[in-house]
Amino acid sequence: MEVSADDRCFVCGPDNAAGLKARFDIDRERRRAVCIIRIVDTYQGWQGIVHGGIIAALVDEAGVYACRSVGEHFVTAELNVKYKSPVPIDQELIITAEVVASRRRIYSVVGKIELAGKVLVESQAKIFEVTSA
User: Fold this and answer.
1) How much is the pTM?
2) At 12, is the secondary structure helix, strand, or coil?
3) Phi/psi of residue 89, each to 5°?
4) CA distance 109 to 100
5) According to the 3-state scheme, what is the secondary structure of 26-76?
6) Strand partners for 111
7) Model confidence over 56-91: pLDDT tens digits?
8) Which of 40, 55, 68, 109 is 20 to 30 Å from 33 by CA-CA measure?
9) Burial per residue of 97-125, b for 16 or more beta-carbon CB atoms within 10 angstroms, e otherwise
10) Which residues contact residue 57 at a Cβ distance below 8 angstroms, ignoring those fewer than 6 apart?
11) Where does 2-132 sit in CATH, by number?
């Protein structure tokens, strides 16, 4: 599989008018990624709560960015999300993901979303390294 970037990713793409425009910082030494973001009510499910699909998209993207600490192009092969508490709209969220293991071109990544030190969401993913176009 080959992939190419065009800055239109729904989660992180700066050229996607409807996107979240999340910005991730990559820590190559710790093999992790971090994003601080506020989600506006455009992306809510129930009133005042971020839609679960948006949450899944954010931890998915965080996992890919964590993998970018060791390479460039990745796709998610498997994602498991544990919603521990509702994620409120318009609050400063901290999203983190870290590579915890790798074998060949498959990386195991754990992620979480926190608010004021409380873990609201946890994730586990298997992420596959691909080639670029």
Assistant:
1) 0.94
2) coil
3) -70, 150
4) 6
5) EECCCCEEEEEECCCHHHECCCCEECHHHHHHHHHHHHHHHHCCCCCCEEE
6) 97, 123
7) 999 999 999 999 999 999 999 999 999 999 999 999
8) 40
9) bbbeebeeeebbbbbbbeeeeeebbebbb
10) 10, 11, 20
11) 3.10.129.10
